[in-house]
Amino acid sequence: MSRETPSRRGARAQRATAGGRWRSWLRHHRAMSLDSASRLLRHPVGSLLTMLAIAIALVLPAGLWLTLDGARLLDAELDESATLTVYLEKDVGADEAGRIEQALAAREGVASTRLITAAEGMAEFQQALGLEDALARLPGNPLPASVVIHPQDPAPAAVQGLADGLETVAGVEEVRLDLAWLERLRHLAELGRRVGLGLAVLFGLGVLLVVGNTIRLAVENRRQEIEVVTLIGATHAFVRRPFLYSGAWYGLGGGLLAWGLLTLGGDWLAAPIAALAASYGASFALPGLGLAGSAMLLGCSTLLGWLGAWIAVSRHLAQIRPR
Amino acid sequence: MIAFEHVGKRYGGRFDALANLDFRVRRGEMVFLTGHSGAGKSSLLRLLMRLERPSRGRILVAGHDIDRLHASQVPFYRRQIGVVFQDHQLLFDRSIYHNVALPLEIQGAEPREAARRVRAALDKVGLLHREKALPIELSGGEQQRVGIARAVVNKPALLLADEPTGNLDPQLSADIMALFEDFHRIGTTVMVASHDLALIARLRHRTLRLQEGRLVADEEAA
Ligand SMILES: Nc1ncnc2c1ncn2[C@@H]1O[C@H](COP(=O)(O)OP(=O)(O)O)[C@@H](O)[C@H]1O
Ligand SMILES: [Mg+2]
After folding, report:
1. Partner residue facing B75 (CB), from A25, A228, A233
2. CB A233 to CB B155 under 8 A?
3. This model's pTM is above 0.80
4. What is the ipTM of this complex?
5. What is the pLDDT of residues A69-95, one digit of tens each?
6. Contact with chain B for residue A142, Cβ under 8 A
7. Domain total for chain B?
8. Which tens digits make up the pLDDT trace of B32-69?
9. What is the pLDDT of residues B121-177, one digit of tens each?
10. A233 and B76: CB-CB below 8 Å?
């Protein structure tokens, strides 16, 4: 007795227009999403605890991601300050220095140049050290002229390559670049990114487990119901549906709580972070989640909840056989 | 409607619960399945519902070998069979109305049409006035009638019942059997497993008798 059924009455009952099927499918989705939401609300404390567990699992990777996002902004600011200083030979005169600067500016990879003549260099030096009197007593100007170069590509390897090329230019005594701390910061950021990714994966699994376990218990509680509906012709999709909605609701709730925690945490940490950044002469603030970030957080958490439920129900349905 | 062709069912690799069953049931027929406890009545019905699969032989329902059904087709096959269980298998957290409506809900029936059919089925078993009650508020006989209403609410071509009167007193049992006869009378194929021999004898329908998994008697109504 497959779908081309022997029973005319049965056949009529089965036969539905495509529109009718679509409507009944929508009807069941609406019913199940509301039903699973009301089941969650019937046990508010238990539901809240599950959502809180999800939220805590989400907050750490999301917080780290925000921190890295902030670091990326800081990185851009640092790139601005990635410069090379080219010291010219001591006997290069002012005209000659100007020509060399133009030659340097024309080279590939150089974004901009600024010439600091020997006299300007001395003035800056005096100002910086506050040694005007002592230096004024020196017989001549011991400082060479120099050219400060902003490279087009601030990546450490590129800057190093550019510096090597500039060494050979006639009239250039020495090229200085201080990349060590920039590089260290980059390595740190990269490390942070990887730790963040690893944490995100681990804690994502954590969310799956939390939701999976909760749903497993829910399935166990409704075992008899599942057996009965399976006996009278429910498809797996039908049986799964309310649990998938529960999982999605848990995920969404957890995501909202995580969002709240992140917002509160951001406010709480903002002042000390600003003070710390200022002490390094940088401006750094934790960026907020923004609209896209919030949507992403809620989307991911809902999806994780749904997925956790799917895994739990599928594993469990295989074991439930009607008596 | 139903054809068993040399069907055997072996549990756990050694024990033959059913052996070499070979019989047919015509469309619209009403058949009793008897035999003492452990004879294999439930196993036979479970094979028909495709809760179990035969170890040997074929089972044809309406000309289709049900062992060949793909897992995804099984729910749709089951929707066309009404089943009444000895222990009713009602859901205790929802009303009588919603218990009976369950098969229609599963099939995605249109709510107004579903309401009409649920009321018709409840009316048929005489429980229309209890539609808002919970199963727990009903007596055993009433619960069984709810189970029957649920089994017939989508007008199945085949109605199976496994010891539907097992826990009921004789008068209630007779009432329940009379309901099955009503469905038989309007053209439904009915198969009822029961060991209430006195009641079966009075009702005069074809009777298949199982003994240790074998068909030992196939008696047409006298
Ligand atoms: N799932 C099962 N696994 C192993 N043995 C079973 C299973 N189901 C039934 N049996 C055995 O098959 C035999 C027939 O059982 P059953 O069909 O329930 O008989 P009846 O319904 O006539 O009392 C019994 O001996 C029972 O123990
Ligand atoms: Mg039995």
Report:
1. A233
2. no
3. no
4. 0.89
5. 777 666 666 666 677 888 888 888 888
6. no
7. 1
8. 999 989 999 999 999 999 999 999 999 999 999 999 99
9. 999 999 999 999 999 999 988 999 999 999 999 999 999 999 998 878 888 899 999
10. yes
> Which positions in chain A touch B79 (Cβ < 8 Å)?
14, 232-233
* Number of residues that this document lists for chain A: 323
Residue A130 has pLDDT above 90, yes or no: no
Distance from CA of B167 to the nearest CA of A (A): 18
Query: Is the pLDDT at A131 greater than 70, yes or no?
Result: no
pLDDT for res B222: 60
Helix, strand or coil, per DSSP, at residue B161: strand
| Ligand 1 mean position, distance from CA B43 (Å) | 6
Specify if B198 maps to a domain.
yes
Do residues B2 and B33 touch, judged by C-beta distance below 8 A?
no
Give the CATH number of the domain where residue B125 resides.
3.40.50.300
Quote the ligand 2 centre to A200 CA distance (angstroms): 53
Q: What tens digit of pLDDT does each residue of A137-155 get?
A: 677 777 888 888 888 887 7
Is B22 inside any structural domain?
Answer: no
What pLDDT, on the 0 to 100 scale, is given for residue A7? 43
Name the nearest CA neighbour of B210 among B27, B60, B4, B36. Answer: B36
* Interface A-B: count of C-beta contacts within 8 A: 97
**Which residue in the block uniquely carries the two structure tokens 């002490």?**
A279
Phi, psi of A106 (to 5 degrees): -80, -10
From B43, B82, B58, B77, select the one nearest B210 (Cα to Cα): B43
Amino acid at B154: N
Distance CA A22, CA A27 (A): 9
Q: Which domain holds residue B196?
A: 27-50+70-219
Instruction: Say what the pLDDT of residue A1 is.
Output: 41
Q: Which residues of A touch B64 (CB under 8 A)?
A: 1-2
Q: Is residue A245 scored above 70 in pLDDT?
A: yes
CB contact under 8 A, A232 and B102: yes
In a domain, B121, yes or no: yes
pLDDT of A305 higher than 70: yes
Domain architecture of chain A: domains with CATH: 32-77+183-317 (no CATH), 84-176 (3.30.70.3040)
Smallest CA-to-CA distance from A149 within A94, A112, A117 is with A112
Are residues B158 and A1, on separate chains, in Cβ contact within 8 Å?
yes
Q: Is A13's pLDDT higher than 70?
A: no
C-alpha of B152 from chain center: 10
Q: Kindly state whether residue B62 falls inside one of the protein's structural domains.
A: no
In the β-sheet with B2-11, what is the strand arrangement from edge to edge?
B15-25, B2-11, B56-61, B64-65
Residue A13 distance to chain B (closest CA, Å): 7
CA angle A303, A304, A308 (to 5 degrees): 120
Residue whose tokens read 């006869």? B181
Which two structure tokens, joined as six digits, stand for B95? 């009303």
Contacts of B102 in chain A (CB under 8 A): 228-229, 232
Select from A5, A229, A238 the Cβ nearest to the Cβ of B157.
A5
**Residue B194 Cβ < 6 Å to ligand 1:** no
